[in-house]
């Protein structure tokens, strides 16, 4: 017989404190596996009564798939199975400590109880709870022994993402917001909407004890490809019909839009958006961080090299699927690799940006970072692609559009995988992790690892740079060239560069130079031609000459993408010699915005904030909007219209905050107007009682 529904006290506060889940705002119990939690329910304990608990998860719970477990009361907690220990019993209530094993399936469970005494039995539902991975428990696959790292990679909601290019690293703040509202539910929805679940829900749920499975499924679900996942990518430079990827400052808004629209992909994202949303998945308990790789290779054909093509005028052609991105952002998650052995445990690379298919869908990883460093590209999952992102060789070709003839201009083996960066633990600083991905560039060990990877991929007998038809063996150039910046790199100012050409030979050389400048997205995909010029010069033996160049603001203003990036190219045709390609990727700085907190920030007390922006250009800026967000400082996103500003005019915008909780909190700002897009900044606000 079914008994009446007993009332259950889940001891939310006490259990959450023990389980590092106090930041969740739900009314439901959220606990971590491999650790005990206490519940109390009403009902007298009879002397001859036996109690049996049933915990179930997934659509068709079964003992066989470990999605249904039954356990009685025992005298001590079990280490490797579900167990219950009686804490106390009175005439009308029973307190029980329930423990799950460190490899339990994560997700939402239904808990019920059966009691039988003297031949009659009754069952009752106690309610539901959510079980997560447990980085604080030494038996868990995601165990992270350093407590400060658990704080940063599991509990911290604020992050810093690095961008720009290898010559100029910039950064912006991001609100991961993994504890906000129903974000935990949305992340569980992601798992339940995956192809893996739709194709075989029973097997999918039974594999959710394994961070490898959960990480791989989330890497597929964060992008919209294949499965109506969370974010739709767009790298065209035209973002009509959605939001410019650069305008987002947090994951919460994105995940909420996805859920509210009935799970229609949110428009639009680029790599850091996919990576940041995947980082928010750390609410499930897998320690996760974002990683930025500068000069990142997208090697589409698994030959560990990327080919770039230029026409005779020096225009960068979109040919072939390979590309070199100014930067690319992916994730690392921390867990052990029982499939590869202990030396490959630790940080695992996951990449949710849809670049290449893996097992037929757009997902990538987990690839062991150790395997990447050692060139073990045969190991699961997707190591060849990740290895190429940080190690590929670059080949630059001249492509004759009328004949289809390709001529190699030059190749470069240490161009790719620079200044690999992540946020420091407990500080708002950049940490360089390049040496965790590869041995020192140019060292004997680094080339050995590259050779080993080529051999594993069956590339060793393919003559390296010049196997393609029509190719010529690389010849030594007679001249060298470089672009040097000669003035401020700021949006709104003319761009001044010097082209420096040097004759390396002891006889005179005549050079014809074709120059172009294109605005690009950060993937270095050309969007708009901005400027072109040409010059001819005869260089005396060993002579070096400098040519000043100017690209006026009026020329690039309308054509700049919101990435503020311009690629300048000079293709030098040397009479009687080989061509020389000179190029430079330039990122222009937006003006800055300043934030001041006027007074002390105290819990539940209003405090004024002032934001100051000065228009640096000599024309009016209109359509100015300021967006503000910050967990525990304000609810949701505050949007403020700022009046138009005349040339050189300064604006001050004030608003009020009422902090909800003490401690260091981050305020994130994004300012846009018709001439400057998405000027971002953040400020740490220390809230006191």
TrEMBL record:
Name of the protein this chain belongs to: protein-glutamine gamma-glutamyltransferase
Chain sites annotated for binding Ca(2+): 391, 393, 441, 446
Gene3D superfamilies the record matches: Immunoglobulins, Transglutaminase-like
SUPFAM superfamilies: Cysteine proteinases, E set domains, Transglutaminase, two C-terminal domains
Cofactor(s) recorded in Swiss-Prot or TrEMBL: Ca(2+)
Organism per entry: Turnix velox (Little buttonquail)
One term of GO molecular function: metal ion binding
Catalytic machinery residues: 271, 328, 351
Limits of the Transglutaminase-like domain: 263-354
Family designation: Belongs to the transglutaminase superfamily. Transglutaminase family.
The keyword Protein biosynthesis appears for this protein: no
Catalysed reaction, written as an equation: L-glutaminyl-[protein] + L-lysyl-[protein] = [protein]-L-lysyl-N(6)-5-L-glutamyl-[protein] + NH4(+)
Pfam families per UniProt: Transglut_C (PF00927), Transglut_core (PF01841), Transglut_N (PF00868)
Keywords: Acyltransferase, Calcium, Metal-binding, Transferase
EC number: 2.3.2.13
Co-factor remark: Binds 1 Ca(2+) ion per subunit.
Enzyme class: transferase
């Amino acid at each position: 017989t079914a008994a009446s529904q007993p009332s259950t006290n889940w001891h939310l506060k006490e259990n959450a404190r023990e389980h590092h889940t106090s930041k969740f705002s739900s009314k439901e119990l959220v606990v971590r596996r491999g650790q005990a939690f206490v519940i109390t329910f009403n009902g007298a304990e009879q002397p001859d009564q036996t109690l049996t608990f049933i915990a179930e998860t997934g659509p068709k719970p079964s003992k066989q798939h470990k999605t249904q477990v039954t356990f009685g009361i025992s005298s001590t907690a079990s280490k490797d199975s579900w167990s219950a220990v009686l804490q106390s019993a009175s005439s009308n209530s029973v307190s029980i400590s329930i423990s799950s094993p460190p490899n339990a399936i994560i997700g939402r469970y239904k808990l019920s109880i059966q009691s039988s005494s003297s031949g009659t039995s009754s069952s009752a539902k106690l309610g539901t709870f959510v079980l997560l991975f447990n980085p604080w428990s030494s038996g868990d696959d995601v165990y992270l022994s350093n407590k400060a790292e658990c704080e940063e990679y599991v509990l911290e909601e604020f992050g810093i993402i690095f961008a720009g290019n290898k010559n100029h690293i910039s950064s912006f703040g991001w609100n991961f917001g993994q504890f906000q509202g129903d974000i935990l539910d949305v992340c569980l929805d992601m798992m339940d909407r995956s192809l893996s679940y739709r194709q075989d829900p029973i097997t999918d749920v039974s594999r959710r004890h394994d961070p490898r499975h959960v990480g791989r499924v989330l890497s597929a679900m964060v992008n919209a490809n294949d499965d109506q996942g969370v974010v739709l990518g767009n790298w065209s430079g035209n973002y009509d019909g959605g939001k410019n990827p650069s305008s987002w400052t947090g994951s919460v808004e994105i995940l909420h839009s996805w859920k509210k629209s009935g799970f229609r992909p949110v428009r639009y994202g680029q790599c850091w958006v996919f990576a940041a949303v995947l980082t928010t998945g750390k609410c499930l308990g897998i320690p996760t961080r974002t990683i930025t790789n500068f000069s990142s290779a997208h090697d589409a054909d698994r030959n560990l090299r990327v080919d770039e093509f230029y026409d005779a005028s020096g225009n960068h052609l979109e040919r072939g699927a390979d590309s070199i991105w100014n930067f690319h952002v992916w994730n690392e998650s921390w867990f052990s690799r029982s499939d590869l052995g202990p030396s490959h445990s630790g940080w695992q690379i996951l990449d949710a940006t849809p670049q290449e298919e893996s097992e037929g869908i757009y997902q990538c990883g987990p690839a062991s970072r150790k395997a990447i460093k050692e060139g073990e590209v045969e190991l699961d999952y997707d190591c060849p692609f990740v290895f190429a992102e940080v190690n590929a060789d670059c080949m630059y070709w001249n492509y004759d559009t009328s004949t289809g003839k390709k001529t190699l201009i030059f190749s470069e083996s240490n161009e790719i995988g620079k200044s690999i960066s992540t946020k420091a633990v407990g500080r708002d600083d950049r940490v360089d992790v390049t040496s965790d991905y590869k041995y020192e560039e140019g060292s004997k060990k680094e080339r050995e690892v590259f050779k080993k990877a080529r051999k594993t991929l069956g590339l060793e007998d393919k003559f390296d740079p010049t196997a393609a038809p029509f190719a010529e063996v690389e010849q030594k150039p007679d001249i060298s060239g470089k672009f040097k910046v000669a003035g401020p790199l700021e949006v709104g100012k003319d761009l001044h560069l010097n082209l420096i050409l040097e004759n390396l030979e002891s006889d005179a050389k005549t050079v014809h130079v074709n120059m172009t400048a294109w605005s690009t997205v950060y993937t270095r995909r050309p969007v708009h031609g901005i400027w072109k010029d040409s010059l001819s010069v005869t260089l005396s033996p060993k002579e070096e000459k400098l040519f000043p160049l100017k690209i006026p603001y009026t020329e690039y203003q309308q054509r700049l993408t919101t990435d503020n990036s311009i690629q300048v190219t000079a293709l030098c045709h040397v009479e009687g010699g080989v061509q020389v390609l000179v190029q430079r990727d330039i990122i222009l700085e937006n003006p800055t915005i300043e934030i001041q907190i006027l007074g002390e920030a105290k819990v539940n007390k209003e405090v004024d904030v002032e934001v100051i922006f000065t228009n640096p250009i000599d024309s009016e800026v209109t359509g100015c909007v300021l967006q503000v967000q910050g967990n525990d400082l304000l609810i949701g996103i505050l949007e403020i219209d700022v009046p138009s500003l005349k040339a050189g005019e300064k604006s001050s915008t004030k608003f009020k905050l009422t902090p909800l909780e003490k401690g260091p909190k981050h305020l994130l700002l994004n300012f846009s107007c018709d001439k400057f897009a998405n000027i971002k900044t953040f400020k740490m606000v220390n809230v006191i009682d």
